[in-house]
Every structure is written in structure tokens, then in C-alpha cells.
Amino acid sequence: MNPDLILMFEKILAAVKADPRCKGGWHYGSVGRGEEDEWSDYDPVFLIDQEDFEAFSADVAKILSGSCDELLIFWPENYNSDCFKNFCSIVRLGQSLHQFDFFILNAGRAEDWWCRQHCKGCTRDSIFFDRTGEVAALLDKGYTTDNYIPDTLRAIDTYWFHIQMLVKYFKRRDIYKLFKNINDFIFHAHIDLLLSHYDTLDWGSWETKVKRCVPEDLQKHLLVYFTSADFAELKTAIEKGMTFFQQDAKMICEAKGLLYPESMVQQIAAYFKKQTDYED
């Protein structure tokens, strides 16, 4: 952890300890798991009384400003609600810029999904401040959320549905539609396919799960989709991705005892090749 960031956190901690509306807090993220490194940032969660939740929210920017040299960006998450909020920030500490996330949890709405998610995996060892023992009592409840595992066959259908859609975008030379479908659907369908079999991590977003759970040789299958805005290179990337996807899907279907849709795959793959060969 950067020493300047540690000092900023100590200033924030002093400020919330002096504010009776804050019941205490705990570390979430890499610090909470004991996995931080020199590039890590803090993800503290502060427990706030329901009656003080909105008023305290309004003062978060002031708390952050008073703990750094300059508050450059103060960015409330889109999912913020009357149950749970996160205020992302970019701050200047000396000549360096740092990210700092400031989570607040409504003590009266702890059953909400976002609240349970940010208690998940946290124990008394994660606590950095507990004014009345209410933080420890909350974490002792062991709140959790289900770990979403993608559906293998849904991922396969999604992948090939959007492969077929690419044909018209190649014919129209519509680079933006191509990128949208490749990045938003095809790439993520391939991720879902792999995570449907390999995900064993009860926390984290897809990129963390891929990095930690999927074998390195299969991770490389996902990288073929990253290429330039050149139609020929995009077509080559898709063809490589299709080959890898078929290999991965057959292996995973066999391992899970699922019927691999061979006929559907071969028809769409052949259609894509026939309809886009003119690009070569």
C-alpha cells in the first residue's frame, strides 16, 4: 500500500471516529482479504444509522476533501440507493494521484443484496473501527450472496446467435456494430462458457474470476478477440475465436454430461465462412 494512501485512510478514520453518526467500519476488497500490494487501494465500508444515512452521504465529499491535498473526481456509483452507496474518487496526494472508494451501508437495511454482498467473506478480523460492537454483530451474521454460475448451453447459444449476426455487419462494413457484438456478446459468451465450468471463486467480477480460476492456456483463447479496426483482421480474429470456442464448448459439455449442439454449430460456422469469404 502506498504510504500516502495509508496516511489518507488514517485521516478519514479519525474523521469518522469523531462523527457519532458512524457506527464503525471494516475493510472490503484486497485489504480485507490480506492480499494488498503496492498498487492496491482501500475499500472501507462504514456502517451508518438509518436515520443518518442520507445526511452522512451528503458529507462524504467533505470528509474526502479534508483527507487529501485535492479531490479531483467525486463519482457516486449508478447503483447507489437508500440501502448502500459507494462514492468513488480520484485524489491528489502530493504529486501522485490515487483512487479511493468510500462505501456506506445503511444499518437498518442490511438484508439488501448490495449490503449482504459487502459483508460477504468479512469477519471480525476485517474491522478497523467499532464504536458500539454493532459492526461485529453485523459481520457475525455471516451475510452472503449466491455465487452466479453461468449456464453452459445458454452461453453456447448466445455465442452462435451473435456470430450469425456478424454476417450482416461485415456486409454493411459497420465497424461499430461489429465491435459492439464482439465485445458485448461474443467475448462475454466465451467468458461465461469457461466460468460455467471453472468458476470456484465466491467473490470478484469476471476478470478476477478468469484470472484466478480459468487455466492459463484457456485464458489465451479469450485474447484473440482483441484486434484492430480492420475488417480482415476482425474476420481472422473471429475465425480463431470460433475454433477455440468449439474446442472449449465440446470439452465442457463432455465434462458436464451435456449434449453438445454439433449440428447447429457447424451450420452457423459454415454460414459465417461462406458469407464473409468475399472479404479476403
Protein described:
- The chain is an alpha+beta fold.
- 52% of the residues lie in helices and 15% in strands.
- It has 12 helices and 6 strands.
- It has a 6-stranded mixed beta sheet, with helices on both faces.
- A hairpin with a 7-residue loop joins strand 3 and strand 4 (84-93).
- The N and C termini lie far apart (51 Å).
- The model has no long low-confidence stretch (mean pLDDT 95).
What are the SSEs and their pairings?
Blueprint: H1 3-17, E1 22-27, H2 29-33, E2 44-48, H3 53-58, H4 60-65, E3 70-76, E4 84-93, E5 96-106, H5 113-117, E6 127-130, H6 134-140, H7 152-172, H8 175-198, H9 206-213, H10 216-222, H11 231-256, H12 262-276
Parallel strand pairs: 2-5
Antiparallel strand pairs: 1-2, 1-6, 3-4, 4-5
Helix pairs in contact: 7-8, 7-11, 7-12, 8-9, 8-11, 11-12
